[in-house]
Amino acid sequence: MFYIQSNDCTKLAVYDYNPHGSRTIILVHGWPLSHKMFEYQIPTLLQYDYRIVTMDIRGFGQSDESTCGYDYNQLATDLFSIIHQMNLYNFALLGFSMGGAIVTRYMCLYQGYGVSKLCLLDAAVPTYCQSPQNPYGQSVQDTDKLIQLGYHDRPKLNQYFGSIFFAKKHSHPFMNWLQGISDDASGLGQMQTLFSLRDENVFCDLQSIQVPTAIFHGTKDQICRFEMAEIMHQNISSSQLFPLKDAGHGAFYDNLEEFNNLLIHFLDDNKNHV
């Protein structure tokens, strides 16, 4: 792990696995997690000789807890700071949940700089909450309740989020591991990004995506409903939709082997290049 400074001097924790790999993929985690959520994807990607660059979003994991900068524009700028300073180009970019919204904003704000393929995994796109473009989102009222809970008992908020994260039952040790990652986030970062999830909209950004795009989404996702994946598919001209049957928001673990295989197939399929 090393640090890269963003444009406002916030230090971002960056992890670079297999730096001499033949191909590169950048993984952007979701709320309220960290790069650790990709623990069960990293070995498969390494097996196929991928260079894997991950980060902790500001306020999460080992990155700085800044007092501001939790809007999607700044979070996309943080991502660009890493890409630019590491001289990365011709890479696949994957965003999970809120990370999906961040990479979508990156594609618009930075014209998809360096991206050859895009992966949206149970993404909070086009909006997390209900909007004219997304009637399937969470209600603002319910999200406000989560915000109030987080300000009074953040571990309980994380426990609730974990309880609806998967569609399948997993071991207590695994769920404790997930809770630990969530609890490790800074209170300020976790709550400020929850405001961004509630208020921001990346629907118009979808038109700027011109690279082959894979949309992986659990059909039983209770947090970002599967209908949101269909909205993404309808509005990204170069997209493919991969329904992960009977998986929840954490489809990357509910359907672990299936997701890893689909991801590798999409990344390795030369027909998906433009």
Radius of gyration, in Å, reads 17 Å
Largest sheet: 8 strands, mixed
Which word captures the global form? globular
Oligomer: single chain
Portion in helices: 25-40%
Low-confidence stretches: none
First-residue to last-residue Cα separation: 33 Å
**Which sequence of strands runs across the widest sheet?**
1-2-4-3-5-6-7-8
Strand fraction: 15-25%
Structural class: alpha/beta
Q: On the 0-100 scale, what is the average pLDDT?
A: 97
SSE string, helices as H and strands as E: EEEHEHEHEHHHHEHEHH
Question: What's the tally of helices?
Answer: 10
- The total count of strands amounts to 8
What would your notes on this structure say?
This protein is of the alpha/beta class and 274 residues long. The protein has helices at 42-47, 72-85, 98-109, 140-152, 154-163, 172-183, 187-199, 226-235, 251-254, 256-268, and strands at 2-5, 11-17, 23-28, 50-55, 91-96, 115-121, 213-218, 239-244. The chain has an eight-stranded mixed β-sheet with strand order 1-2-4-3-5-6-7-8, with helices on both faces. Helix 2 (72-85) crosses helix 3 (98-109) and helix 5 crosses helix 6. The relative contact order is 0.16.
What is this structure, in a nutshell?
The protein is of the alpha/beta class and 274 residues long. It has ten helices and eight strands.
Features:
single chain; 274 residues; alpha/beta; eight-stranded mixed beta sheet; 8 strands
Blueprint of the fold:
Elements: E1 2-5, E2 11-17, E3 23-28, H1 42-47, E4 50-55, H2 72-85, E5 91-96, H3 98-109, E6 115-121, H4 140-152, H5 154-163, H6 172-183, H7 187-199, E7 213-218, H8 226-235, E8 239-244, H9 251-254, H10 256-268
Parallel strand pairs: 3-4, 3-5, 5-6, 6-7, 7-8
Antiparallel strand pairs: 1-2, 2-4
